[in-house]
Amino acid sequence: MPINIPDRLPATQVLTGENIFVMGEERAMAQNIRPLKVLLLNLMPKKIETEIQILRMLSNTPLQVDVDLLRIDNRPSKNTPEAHLNAFYRTFEEVEQQNYDGMIITGAPLGLVEWNDVVFWDRMKTIIDWANQHVTSTMYLCWAAHAALYTLYGIDRKIRKEKYSGVFAHQVLFQNHPLMRGFDDVFWVPHSRYAEINAEEVEAKTSLQILAASPETGVHLVASNDGRQLFVTGHPEYDPDTLHNEYIRDCDAGLAPVLPENYYRDDNPNNEPLVRWRSHGNLLFANWLNYFVYQTTPYDLSQLNPVALASKLS
Hints:
Elements (H helix, E strand, L loop, with lengths): L2 E2 L5 H8 L4 E2 L1 H4 L7 E6 L5 H12 L6 E6 L11 H7 E2 L1 H4 L4 E6 L15 H14 E7 L1 H11 L4 E15 L13 E11 L2 H7 L3 E6 L3 E6 L5 E4 L9 H11 L25 H17 L11 H8 L1
Parallel strand pairs: 1-2, 1-4, 3-4, 3-6, 4-5, 6-7, 7-12
Antiparallel strand pairs: 8-9, 8-10, 10-11, 11-12
């Protein structure tokens, strides 16, 4: 089944060129089924690039998915044309009275910034709280995962001196969990972050389940028991060259970044990256849409009831 996005969105042409079934708005109007409604809050500077990455992941499912794009505020973007934002993005005020089947909040390059120094921190907390009442299941990626764990559970991140950069092996800790169905015992995930979450604190202070972790980079997948919150500390959506582009950017800026681990063939930045995370990245998004969203969301979204959803998933 297709992903339904605006006809003129740049991702439409890119994904169609990859033979991904993209349904235009006009054709979608003729469909006789209710598609899933997913809200994407894009916090990354290069929004078009991130749109394509996330939409590619959402397309790998037999379900039809309608996607709304959300911006955190109306501040001008240095990396995305204002015309693009005005054409395709909605403000929070435009969606706050609606309900959604799923929501994805991306990471942001704010790993070294204190929470209260983040320009949009108050709005971020508002949206996290709003999602608990208006969204069946929310996926928080990287920085957003840390922000949500702090806002919802008081679990603060630990800032490291050196950045986790590279592709790291992870172990599945709950083989029978629906989100882990089809996963190998060990799978690979890209990381690009300074912060980490303490597993012992998560286990001591919450009833959250740590589903997967890495001996090198720590906690990776954390889920609430009712399936309404999924925290992902890595970047399973990354393109093959995303870490490379970040590395070159930091080199050009004179930051002397560490070479991304387990990424370039033979650890030589002149070689192509070795892509070994794509299959599990697609599987993660497909499992989330199927088990945490599609099988639990009400047909009539106006009837979304957080208490009833928690009972259904327990």
